[in-house]
Design goal:
This protein is mainly alpha-helical. The chain has two domains: 175 residues, no CATH class; 76 residues. The protein contains ten helices and two strands. Strand 1 and strand 2 form a beta hairpin. Helix 2 runs antiparallel to helix 6, helix 3 packs parallel to helix 6 and helix 7 runs antiparallel to helix 8. The chain is flat.
Length: 255
């Protein structure tokens, strides 16, 4: 079965891919922090942050279409937020726009939707860039080195690794059900659905036990290990310094 992996482009050779994972994690989270803390009306800063992120995406040599497709995942949440705009109270007399016929949208509501949309989009694209250029295993190892709780790191690692296996199991069960179904009715569909959920749970539980025993037998100590050894190089320091300087300029200029 074909899967859509988050780190599908982690094997691409680019400047961003070659940067140490710890440096990238720190810089991306700094970028997200600056984005989230930016006041809603600092439009110039949002523009500069977008240009900075676009430059990083260009240096990563990952197709723009990949990021555009990923950003579509935010669309349902933004539409849900947009649906509540008419119910946000007006900020002052005359400070509203009649965009939806009888409903008036206040300036305050438009600022809220812009602020939420731009921050969510920039943060999501930054995280997508981080995962795509680092690889999920290296990202988990970087989290581990940042002293993030092991339970959180292991949960993310196993979820990402085995969610595709469970998806394959579900597809096999659905194919078997379709091949054995002669007459369809709501009653039989509900009964089959309950059986599918139970079967999938039992298979997942058995697989989890087998994986756990296999890991214990191979000496798993609770730490994520990778084949490559990490050492911060001069290019990493130059990239980190240039990025911090750029973000500082963005903060100062984008007031």
């Amino acid at each position: 079965m074909r899967h859509s992996y988050l780190d599908a482009y982690n094997e691409v050779d680019s400047i961003i891919h070659r940067i140490d994972a710890r440096i990238k994690c720190g810089l991306i989270f700094l970028f997200i922090l600056i984005t989230v803390l930016t006041p809603p009306t600092c439009y110039r800063r949002f523009l500069l942050l977008g240009i900075y992120l676009s430059a990083l995406i260009g240096l990563s040599r990952i197709p723009i279409g990949f990021f555009l497709k990923r950003s579509l995942m935010l669309l349902p949440f933004l539409l849900l937020l947009f649906a509540f705009l008419p119910f946000i109270p007006q900020d002052n007399p005359g400070g509203s726009y009649n965009l939806l016929g009888k409903w008036e949208i206040s300036q305050n509501a438009l600022i809220i939707i812009f602020n939420s949309g731009i921050k969510a989009t920039l943060s999501f694209l930054a995280l997508t860039l981080l995962i795509s250029t680092t690889g999920f295993n290296n990202l988990m190892k970087a989290f581990q080195m940042f002293k993030i709780p092991q339970v959180f790191v292991h949960t993310l690692a196993f979820m990402y690794r085995y969610i595709f296996v469970i998806q394959d199991e579900l597809q096999q069960i659905l194919k078997a059900k379709k091949a054995r179904t002669i007459k369809k009715s709501k009653k039989t569909e509900y009964r089959a659905l309950s059986s599918i959920i139970g079967t999938l749970f039992l298979r997942s539980y058995e697989r989890a036990e087998n994986i756990y025993y296999a890991m214990i037998a191979r000496g798993f100590t609770g730490k994520i290990k990778t084949l490559n050894t990490w050492k911060i190089k001069t290019r990493d320091l130059i990239f980190a310094g240039a990025s911090v300087l750029s973000l500082t300029v963005i903060i100062l200029v984008g007031k």
